[in-house]
## 1
Amino acid sequence: MALALSMGDPAGIGPDIAIGAWLQRREADIAAFFVIGDPAVLRDRAALLDVELPLIEIEAAAAADAHFAAALPVLPVRCARPARPGQPNTDNASATIEAIRQAVRLTLTGDADGVVTAPIAKAVLYDAGFLFPGHTEFLAALAAEHLRRTVRPVMLLVNSQLKVAPVTIHIPLKEVTGQLTTEAIVETGQIIARELKARFGIAAPRLAVSGLNPHAGESGALGDEDGEIVLPAVRQLRALGVQAIGPLPADTMFHPEARASYDAAVCMYHDQALIPAKTLGFHDGVNATLGLPFIRTSPDHGTAFSLAGSGDARPDSLIAALRLAGQMAAAQSGRRVAGDA
Ligand SMILES: NC(=O)c1ccc[n+]([C@@H]2O[C@H](COP(=O)([O-])OP(=O)(O)OC[C@H]3O[C@@H](n4cnc5c(N)ncnc54)[C@H](O)[C@@H]3O)[C@@H](O)[C@H]2O)c1
Ligand SMILES: N[C@H](C(=O)O)[C@H](O)COP(=O)(O)O
């Protein structure tokens, strides 16, 4: 079997890094993958980058593994318009979305090992009527359809220095206080603790939970949420058997000695979690969605339109995402896949 890689925005660096990852497949020791996307876009991008790319169009995911060593397998989802590097076109949004849908469908049917997504530009998809803030929420909706229940997705950023997840995800900062609840923190903490055990082999995960306000509220002088929302969540997590500490002041929980005291940090909003993650490990960073009935990883960067077709887009983060997805698939099935050291 192989991992399903959705092509992302065809005008972004998704095609560049997919080609780069395939070219480095041997030394990077990554599991086999196939791209779900437009073969013409990949051929054009390879020509622009001046690299020789053997590419094979496949009709079914099952064919990917056999071809991967010799050619980049592509399950075609064709764009409506030619993709121009750096110039996103909303007419191609439906192909971008369809590639994600197919990756999820094939993983849920057991035809692929997991979903790896190349970056999308959210605003381009919103212009085409996409109703979700990002992949994370779209994948949760697809999972909910499959499971017939609501699904809370957890956006875990992983690099060699840190694992960290925000409780609230893609929402405006002014809405964070209204949407942050004790229940959301507890559910997020439970999902992280469960999946650190199951997918990352951490037998007794230790979580560090941040506060919301400066200095975790300074005993209420700088905000009530730390004491009224976060502290009860930490207590509930402990009562549920999860090793959790907090609320911790967010500004002092990411230095090396602090990081050594926990396995994952739980933060209250997007930038509180993603700034330390992307600062400590941008090019080896992976965005993994937990809480889903399938594996999903992604590079931690975006579409970087100005780099598309330039040769300057590094495939490292995608390689890390493919490697982590391969390791998760191996942990799930008990078999060894490439990248599982
Ligand atoms: N997984 C995803 O789908 C995902 C993740 C983050 C951002 N985005 C989207 O991407 C778009 C652009 O976002 P942004 O500009 O904030 O972030 P970005 O990650 O695209 O770019 C940030 C900076 O990092 C550089 N960079 C990014 N990837 C690189 C790579 N592989 N090699 C070398 N340099 C790289 C860029 O040139 C830029 O200077 C937005 O629409 C955002 O929503 C998508
Ligand atoms: N918040 C993520 C980041 O900045 O890396 C990014 O927007 C990707 O999110 P999705 O995987 O939900 O598209």
## 2
Amino acid sequence: MTRLLEIDHVSVGYDGTTVVHDVSLALNTGVIGCLLGPSGCGKTTLLRTIAGFEPASAGRVLLDGQVVSQAGWTLPPERRQVGMVFQDFALFPHLTVAENIAFGIRGQSSRARRERVTELLRLIGLPDYGPAYPHALSGGQQQRIAVARAMAPRPRLLLLDEPFSNMDVELREGLAREVRAILKQEDITAMLVTHDQNEAFAFADRIAVINAGRVLQWDTAYNLYHKPIARFVADFIGQGRMLTGTVRNKHEVETELGTITGRIPETCQPGDPVDVLVRPDDIQPDDSSPIFGEVMEKAFRGANFLYTLRLGSGDTVLCLAPSHANYALGERIPLRLGFNHLVIFPRQTGPAMVS
Ligand SMILES: Nc1ncnc2c1ncn2[C@@H]1O[C@H](COP(=O)(O)OP(=O)(O)OP(=O)(O)O)[C@@H](O)[C@H]1O
């Protein structure tokens, strides 16, 4: 695998205000990346910088080892061989589906265009829709056509800016998975922008969690969930609560749910107060346990229950229990802590809550 995109200490600003700070990350050929973060964190600005629509105020963007942006110089978007897919599809309503897809390859022979359109229609699962007009298609079908149109010229990189956010929530994840499969079949390298972590998890191989213009972690979905390296990442990804703990030694933290074993950061000393990240799937009801939590809230989700439980100290934890484990509000549940990874952060004053 070769390195296709390299973002090297890039900063970007508007009118002298920096909104993307010193970002470095790289994408190998065929890998799908994602810029994930809350509204206003700078993800669209970074994507537009990769596309060549915004200039970098510091650092460099490289495509295939070639500098395409650096302070004071920007290769125009049309010379980057980069495709874009937007939130609003931007299909031409007066052109048929086939004509829309062929739009980006106008310079090719009519036979080559026809073959590429046929190939892409098959790839997106709409082989018979060439003569149809966009208005006759569903939102999901239109978005797949927008992806096919962007893929037609075989861009070296495909950039997707919130492409699923106009869809119903229940369709989004499925469409993200479908489009991912389409890109993987053609070995396309892509970068998605989204604020929706389910979409990011369904779509991307690697995800950059961004806050206030800085990339806090560039990692797999699994590691972001199980091994967040920053408190913001722990808060933003998945659900959970921070449990009060005290470092006992290099391997153990004492909490009211018992002693937890794992790797303690070098910076933590015995006796230090810490917050321990506890995910809902780390806590299981266990009749043999002497530790109890009181049910404060419960949400039935079909396959399971999500309980919010108050411990003796007043700290709360979430507990994902099987769907037959039906406890009443106010009931005291015996609990067991079953950890895979110990994630701790130096104690922070104020509410220790994760989404
Ligand atoms: N053209 C512009 N001129 C001035 N400021 C801008 C411009 N575009 C974006 N900004 C500001 O830059 C910051 C980052 O915006 P950006 O659109 O990159 O964030 P985002 O993470 O994509 O947010 P959203 O998910 O809401 O689109 C915000 O404070 C925004 O107000």
